[in-house]
Design goal:
heterotetramer, A: 236 residues, three-stranded antiparallel beta sheet, B: Glutaconate Coenzyme A-transferase, 25% strand, globular
């Protein structure tokens, strides 16, 4: 099949170019394609437009690409956790397009589904709707939002097989499945590379058709926790 | 005597009905989960893709793949399910969530809500707030009655809106108001916190309201 | 929780009324809510608008409601397998609105997702687009299609728990998951009723929030095959 | 000598490339699966919600829950996955399927396709055909060259369209034509079946075409 690549650099070889639009999965630091982000950083590619719900934190996730000033524009719903972002934005070095989180998710889903535009109630009467067409349906006003298709999507999955079929674990699913469908090239990093047949076909969330390349993360792979919150065990 | 944050959360919890699916915002709304009556079964939704939120994990049992919309580590329940962000907001936008309880910077008499940006300050983004207020069946705002001594329940919002005519109820430390999302603007004070006077709450509220106190 | 009902009649009690719109899952006879269709037939409710990809065959599936003339209108993509349908249609007793299958699937998905309208390339320049708004996006023409929300959805699933979480088996999934989301009341028949916690939360396709009532099929439950096609085993 | 149905299917199979995802229509197109070259790996999609279609089951091994879009019992492969009809058509509409091979009643010179209804006859519905021709990257029509002695590759379709300007290639028992979906109408005869003459195919074709025969 030839979808499996040796490492992240290899998996992105020939794909990266300056000025391209990249979708990057994850919510906060949960389910982010950290290896692939690292490889993009190493490649030195610049002027990127990044579609991602968040912008990582200063020293992890997309924060790594902000540090190196490889990002020109972010399309996101919330970037509060990143001081580098704030500094570059206030200095006018970084552009941001805020989308309501659900509108962002749906725009990506629409892009992958061949839907160029849809209507939503979200944002009607707010700054988000300014300059966009509105329409009435059954007496309610809705705003038109556009589907997005990127040049490249980088995503993270729990398990993947050689055909590119993917499953996700818990809330690390988030934006990854839609982004897998909404780019001309989708590269996935998986925690566990398995053989075709190892995944129950009823459980596959992303069918292999959407995944062009995949790479297994190495043994030292670390998943960071952004807000470690716990409760105390009561003594019996 | 004005309600404490916990008492405000407990008051908001009285809006929960058996079988409700509920989304709780960050801050005081999170406390509502501690006050769910024992005879009421609710499932909490987190917009990052989970239904059936459990409590925080015990120390050492945190899972990087299991967080809520505030990016805090949480746990699952036997009823839990996971789904993508598109499916999560399809659920929200499609009107399947019964109740959303969230904070606010300002609420206007007509139900307008502002809670995502203050011009001149660094803008962090609206996250899922605009989708929640547009999509959820009932929206309850849980907020301090004033900020820096100034009323937050106003004739009109001066801050950029999160949603237009989206708030059904406002709970503050001083009392509870209902609002009309459709038709004529109608703010009604339905409860006062213990020992809070009508004079006090009127002085601290810019939005005109009628009074129809219910037995709390 | 109280979502589990004793039998199909019980699960539909108080829900049925003349003239209502009902979505019915399944593709051909695969994954159809046969028990619930049977209960609707017994109820005698009339003038129904049915949203379903197909119309069953003469003596199974929705064909049972056509026999008793309980259906006024079908919204479907293909009704070729049903002679009762053809007879009633030609006699002017039955209305049909044909939708391209993907447009039908997406209209249902949109209805459940709070999207009142979307644009698609499907049907542009054909009879399907007549009378509908069109718009250009990036130089291509698209037709506007509307989301659908029904009064009731009846669906079939493989396993379900008391919370209403559902999983489907193989191609019996088809229209069931979207229909579960797109009605004011969704009733599911499940082959196996299991306890909360028995379903892996990563495998759940329909979260319980969408399912108001469910009923387990009985021991004599039969799944019919419409086109039994086989190959011969070669002798070794 | 005109091609047999199997030879037509074999010719269509030569449009398959390694790694392609393919949707095959009912009828002759189904036969294409029997002619996939051994060095070419393709995955078949069925619009009722499956990728990775296997062959028909052995007798006694039929599964009512496992059918193709023609409602025939089939089997799965180790690569298979299942998904909803909405996800299936998102895949189709979104341009993720490389090739669709389907039958036709009429094809026009500009690529218009009619294959779903004949006015006056009972209308059965278009099923997924309109979505497939609108969404799939390359559309190949596999059809008899004539019906009742009348050409089916026409100047204009007289039957209601399934799609406007959607056909890239037409394969009949007499030869192979390419069509242009965009810009100027351009029908080109690129192959003739063995012993079929240019005169014969011209006589049986209403659409004007140019000839640019390739070595078959």
């Amino acid at each position: 099949m030839g979808k499996v690549y040796r490492d992240a650099q290899d998996a992105l070889a020939g794909v990266l170019r300056d000025g391209m639009m990249i979708m990057s999965g994850g919510f906060g630091l949960c389910g982010i394609p950290s290896l692939l982000i690292g490889a993009i950083r190493e490649s030195g590619v610049r002027d990127l437009t990044i579609v991602s719900n968040n912008a990582g934190i200063d020293d992890a996730g997309l924060g790594l690409l902000l540090q190196t000033r490889q990002v020109r524009k972010m399309i996101s719903s919330y970037v509060g956790e990143n001081a580098t972002f704030a500094r570059q934005f206030l200095a006018g070095e970084l552009e941001i397009e805020f989308n309501p989180q659900g509108t962002l998710a749906e725009r990506i889903r629409a892009g992958g589904a061949g839907i160029p535009a849809f209507y939503t109630k979200t944002g009607v009467g707010t700054a988000v709707a300014e300059g966009k067409p509105t329409a009435e349906f059954d007496g309610e006003t809705y705003v038109q939002e556009r589907g997005i298709v990127a040049d490249l999507s980088i995503i993270h999955a729990w398990k993947g097989d050689e055909e590119g079929n993917l499953i996700y674990r818990r809330t690390a699913r988030n934006f990854n499945p839609m982004m897998a469908t909404a780019a001309r090239m989708t590269v996935a990093q998986v925690e566990h590379l398995v053989q075709p047949g190892d995944l129950d076909p009823d459980h596959i969330v992303t069918p292999g058709i959407f995944v062009k390349r995949l790479v297994q993360v190495g043994p030292g792979f670390e998943k960071r926790i952004e807000q470690r919150t716990t409760r105390k065990k009561l003594m019996a | 005597m004005a309600w404490t944050r916990d008492q405000m959360a407990a008051r908001a919890a009285r809006e929960l009905e058996d079988g409700f699916y509920v989304n709780l915002g960050i801050g005081i709304p999170t406390l509502v989960a501690n006050h769910v009556p024992s005879n009421v079964n609710v499932q909490l939704q987190s917009e990052n893709g989970m239904l059936g939120l459990g409590p925080f994990p015990y120390e050492g049992e945190e899972d990087a793949d299991l967080i809520n919309a505030g990016k805090q580590t949480i746990t699952a329940l036997p009823t839990s399910s996971y789904f993508s962000s598109a499916d999560s907001f399809a659920m929200i936008r499609g009107g399947h969530i019964d109740l959303s309880i969230l904070g606010a910077l300002q609420v206007a008499a007509n139900g307008d809500l502002a809670n995502w940006m203050i011009p001149g300050k660094m803008v962090k983004g609206m996250g899922g707030a605009m989708d929640l207020v547009a999509g959820v069946k009932k929206v309850v705002v849980l907020m301090e009655h004033t900020a820096g001594g100034k009323p937050k329940l106003l004739k009109d919002c001066s801050l950029p809106l999160t949603g237009a005519r989206v708030v059904d109820m406002v709970i503050t430390e001083l009392g509870v108001f209902t609002l009309a999302r459709k038709g004529e603007t109608a703010v009604t004070l339905i409860e006062l916190a213990p020992e809070v006077t009508l004079e006090e709450i009127t002085a601290k509220t810019e939005a005109p309201f009628t009074v129809a106190l219910r037995n709390a």
